[in-house]
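User: I've been trying to design a sequence by hand for this structure and keep getting stuck. Would you show me what you'd pick, starting by listing the structure so we're on the same page?

Assistant: Good idea, let's start from the same input. This is the structure you sent:
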């Protein structure tokens, strides 16, 4: 009881939740990390990030790989161009999240990363968490950072939640959407185009469409009640008659 009382007193003394920075501000941005430049964008360069990039390369086709590379660079630019976000976002958490966010798209036959019963975002989040814990550098990560990566990947398509979570989670989702919606949030047209020149966007829509069709066919239950549902319904209505490629691309509520 004494402890309960102490706890209550301590909690009462805390500032309102909204006044507590949501990000991993305790570890915070790490300006001392080495950097390299990709497509004109200065990114942090750690062994874990390099390994994440390679891991994604090993589990993706060219279209998906180019997509995750662009989203990493767009997310990085978004933070670089915004002083508030620069102070809050953990660049290594952001990089690993963006680089690994589509592990649930791994279509290698027999892939251990893809479940039969979970949304691709959850498969990706679990695979990224395993990747971090299995990696020498990642094993030293505080659990909080691993959790941020998990949340950022699991929620990236659900902006109703992602945009109101930690800045790390928010900017992962926004960086990914920017690949579909164009330059935004302080990222200039020139910066955006430079990234798209190095990692071409031309196959993005067809490749994402193919992945969605694969998901709607192989584990339809995971697509119900998500942004993929209307897509799956059109696919089902149309599949036998006209074939998969005729299904319209759908992403986001306004599509
Ligand atoms: C910077 O980011 C914060 C947090 O997302 C946002 O509220 C603010 O509008 C951004 N500033 C600019 C200039 O984009
Ligand atoms: C099938 O797809 C075609 C081409 O997108 C479209 O015009 C047609 O309305 C679709 N049919 C159904 C039943 O959804």
């Amino acid at each position: 009881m004494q402890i309960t009382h102490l706890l209550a007193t301590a909690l009462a003394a805390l500032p309102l939740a909204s006044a507590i920075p949501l990000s991993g501000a305790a570890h915070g941005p790490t300006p001392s990390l080495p950097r390299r430049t990709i497509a004109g964008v200065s990114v942090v360069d750690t062994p874990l990030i390099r390994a994440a990039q390679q891991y994604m390369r090993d589990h993706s086709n060219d279209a998906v790989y180019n997509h995750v590379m662009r989203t990493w660079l767009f997310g990085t630019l978004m933070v670089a161009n915004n002083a508030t976000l620069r102070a809050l976002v953990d660049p290594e958490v952001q990089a690993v999240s963006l680089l690994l966010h589509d592990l649930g798209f791994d279509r290698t036959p027999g892939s251990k990363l893809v479940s039969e019963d979970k949304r691709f975002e959850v498969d990706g989040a679990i695979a990224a968490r395993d990747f971090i814990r299995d990696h020498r550098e990642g094993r030293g990560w505080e659990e909080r950072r691993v959790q941020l990566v998990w949340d950022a990947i699991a929620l990236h398509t659900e902006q109703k939640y992602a945009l109101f979570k930690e800045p790390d989670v928010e900017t992962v989702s926004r960086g990914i959407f920017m690949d579909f919606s164009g330059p935004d949030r302080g990222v200039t047209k020139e910066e955006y185009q430079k990234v798209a020149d190095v990692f071409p966007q031309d196959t993005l829509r067809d490749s994402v469409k193919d992945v969605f069709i694969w998901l709607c066919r192989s584990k339809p239950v995971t697509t119900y009640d998500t942004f993929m549902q209307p897509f799956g319904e059109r696919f089902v209505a149309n599949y036998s008659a006209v074939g998969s490629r005729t299904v319209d691309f759908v992403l986001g509520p306004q599509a």
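That's my pick for every position. To get oriented when you compare it with your attempt: Residues 4 and 242 are 65 Å apart (CA to CA). Confidence is low (pLDDT under 50) at residues 1-27, 244-255.
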